[in-house]
Specification:
six-stranded parallel sheet, alpha/beta
Length: 149
């Protein structure tokens, strides 16, 4: 972790199971500057007590999100649990990160995000379009293509 010791690392969905797990791993690996993004910071008092900086953020407000991302160097975007409009929410978050100057975006995608000919494949399509936005953003990126976790 020494390469990232002083980098500002941020995680969306900080109060969710995966977000909390990632933050715990970052802390145990020696990260010192962690930002947790959540719609409900009051649900994360334990993270704040552990030294995690909490910032209120909502993908439905990308203009506000860009301001909240100020100073973040590396951002993990955890895919939202909202299916309807997910691609728009997540691509808006990518745009906000680019606007804020985030240097590297990581994204929890799926194993095969390439859409079928079926436009109703909401889950697959949402990951595909989020990846397309990231890949064309000009920012370094990593796709974490997990099987459903």
């Amino acid at each position: 972790m020494s390469k990232f010791d002083n980098a500002v690392l941020a995680v969306t969905g900080a109060t969710g199971n995966l977000g909390r797990s990632v933050i715990g791993h970052l802390r145990s690996a020696g990260a010192k500057r962690i930002v947790g993004f959540t719609r409900n910071p009051e649900k994360a008092a334990d993270l704040a007590a552990a030294g995690v900086e909490l910032r209120r953020a909502d993908f439905q407000d990308p203009a506000h999100l860009a301001g909240q991302l100020a100073g973040v160097e590396r951002l993990l975007v955890i895919s939202t649990d909202t299916l309807v409009g997910r691609a728009e929410l997540q691509t808006g978050a990518v745009d906000a990160a680019v606007k804020a100057g985030v240097r590297h975006i990581l994204y929890t995608s799926i194993t095969n995000p390439y859409p079928d000919a079926d436009p109703t494949a909401i889950i697959q399509n949402s990951h595909y379009w989020t990846e397309v936005r990231m890949a064309t953003s000009g920012v370094d990126f990593t796709f974490l293509r997990n099987n459903l976790y």
